[in-house]
Specification:
By secondary structure, the chain is mainly α. Helices cover 67% and strands 6% of the residues. The protein contains 15 helices and 6 strands. The chain has helices at 5-44, 47-80, 83-117, 124-153, 170-174, 179-208, 212-247, 249-256, 289-295, 317-346, 353-360, 364-379, 401-432, 450-454, 458-462, and strands spanning 158-161, 164-167, 267-274, 279-286, 384-386, 390-391. The strands form 3 sheets. It has a two-stranded antiparallel ribbon with strand order 1-2. Helix 1 (5-44) runs parallel beside helix 13 (401-432), helix 2 runs parallel beside helix 7 and helix 7 packs antiparallel against helix 10 (317-346). It is globular and about 65 Å long. Residues 466-476 have a biased composition (Basic and acidic residues). Keywords: Cell membrane, Electron transport, Heme, Iron, Membrane, Metal-binding, Transmembrane, Transmembrane helix, Transport. Pfam families: Cyt_bd_oxida_I (PF01654). Residues 435-476 are annotated as: Disordered.
């Protein structure tokens, strides 16, 4: 491929969005987990749930901040690198992004302060409610972003005049055909990803031999979530694949490296797709299984890559391998969750050191699966930025190759420095772990008198995170 402004702009956006997507996905799942912990604390009064909620709230704050910073960069690129995108589809995408800001981001920002700093200032029920609202806000943010992305995958509810899309039916735009399953798939992936981070954290502390009660709680809750959610994700993914066969047949053909529509599609376990020769080299495949999975019959025929013009075909290598990475990780997740549930039922999960050793290194699994799925989704949509309306090459701004190369180099440098520091901070917080429950300390309850808390010195309010340092003393 020729190295020009178009190619470098694609690389730059892929680089920045890949950094960005993992943080919102993690905060979606983590906010729900924190709300669950606070709900359990409110219901049972068990101090361990309170300490775990405080512990994960610190990590949520760092992740949320990095997600916001990386998201702002994406917005700028719409104007700097892809200005023609806004001209062609801004009438549709602009309001959808605006709804995300008005209904989700403002909601999160309004109650995030209460969630982060309201431990001693508000009643327990209000603190729990703020966490629920933040969790709902993160999910609502995902709703609008995925609605916009799904519309770009399969536009609906619009009309095109002079190459510009105009909204006609907002219900059809928001709930376009590929949106519901795409939203369910992404939300489930977010919760599953968070569950593996929680599992890895609990396993790390169990193996280290400290914070046993908190670590056991994290492991139990994570196993339950993984054992239930991982199979559900497989079912959602199967329906999503069948839907792709209907609405995005070129993408399905690329995923399966399917070249000959006169034969049923084989399930290609491994191959090296050769796009020039239009065949798969070193292929290992099971005949008819791809047709069975996508169309319900081993004899079913579906469009192949040769049925599309060369200029209308998506790249094959990235969707092909990324899809197999995603599915492979998904299968391992199911197996890992069910083995953990079996060990838990036998009462040996906390003594199964080999399983715990694997568990402590399982945290990247969800992030890799999300990135793999994102590559399948976005690369498989090419050469279209908005299918049937705007090609990617027609959306790039009139900028020089040197300008994009310089900005790309700066992005790589800054991201590597800033996000390495952020990830190191998160790892440090995880390594420190939640506070221990001290037998001599009474159960901690949030103050029901916020004004009294406001009169206390800052050191008494914030302390250093230990229960004994959190007791508020009235000011003199």
């Amino acid at each position: 491929m020729e190295i020009d402004a178009f190619l470098l702009s694609r690389i730059q956006f892929a680089f920045t969005v890949s950094f960005h997507i993992v943080f919102p996905a993690f905060t979606i799942g983590l906010s729900a987990y924190i709300a669950t912990l606070l709900g359990l604390w409110l219901r049972t009064g068990d101090q361990k749930f309170h300490l775990l909620a405080r512990f994960w709230t610190k990590i949520f704050a760092v992740s949320f901040a990095m997600g916001v910073v990386s998201g702002i960069v994406l917005s700028y690129q719409f104007g700097t690198n892809w200005s023609r995108f806004s001209v062609a589809v801004g009438n549709v995408i602009g309001p959808l992004i605006g709804y995300e800001v008005l209904t989700a981001f403002f909601l999160e920002a309004s109650f995030l302060g209460v969630m982060l700093f309201g431990w001693k200032r508000v009643p327990p029920w209000l603190h729990f409610l703020s966490a629920v609202i933040v969790a709902g806000g993160t999910a609502l943010s995902g709703f609008w972003i995925l609605s916009a992305n799904s519309w770009m995958q399969y536009p609906a509810g619009h009309e095109v005049r002079d190459g510009i899309a105009y909204p006609v039916d907002w219900l059809k735009i928001v709930f376009n055909p590929t949106f519901p399953l795409r939203f369910a798939h992404m939300m489930t992936a977010a919760y599953l990803t968070t569950a593996f981070v929680v599992l890895a954290t609990g396993a790390r502390h169990l193996l280290a031999g400290h914070r046993t009660e908190s670590a056991r709680t994290m492991v139990r809750m994570a196993i339950l979530m993984i054992a239930l959610t991982a199979p559900l994700q497989a079912v959602i993914g199967d329906f999503h694949g069948k839907q792709t066969a209907i609405y995005q047949p070129a993408k399905l053909a690329a995923i399966e490296a399917h070249w000959d529509s006169s034969k049923p599609g084989a399930l290609v376990l491994f191959a090296w797709p050769d796009e020039k020769a239009e065949l798969n080299r070193f292929e290992v495949a099971i005949p008819g299984v791809a047709s069975l999975l996508t169309h319900g019959s081993m004899d079913a025929l579906f469009p192949s890559l040769r049925d599309f013009k060369v200029e209308d075909r998506p790249p094959v290598l990235i969707p092909f391998f990324a899809f197999r990475a995603m599915v492979g990780i998904g299968v391992l997740m199911i197996a890992f969750g069910w083995i953990g549930a079996w060990l838990w039922k036998r009462g040996t999960v906390f003594e199964a050191r080999r399983w715990l050793w694997l568990a402590q290194y399982s945290w990247p699994a969800g992030f890799i699966a999300i990135l793999s799925g994102w590559f399948v989704t976005e690369v498989g949509r090419q050469p279209w930025l908005a299918t049937g309306i705007l090609r990617s090459k027609d959306a790039v701004s009139p900028i020089t190759t040197a300008e994009v190369a310089i900005s790309l180099a700066l992005f790589v440098f800054v991201y590597c420095v800033v996000f390495a520091a952020g990830i190191a901070l998160i790892n440090r917080l995880i390594d420190k772990g939640p506070d221990e429950i001290s037998p001599e300390d009474p159960p901690e309850q949030p103050s029901k008198r916020p004004l009294k808390a406001a009169q206390a010195p800052a050191s008494a309010i914030f302390g250093d995170g230990h229960p004994g340092d959190d007791k508020i003393q009235p000011a003199n």
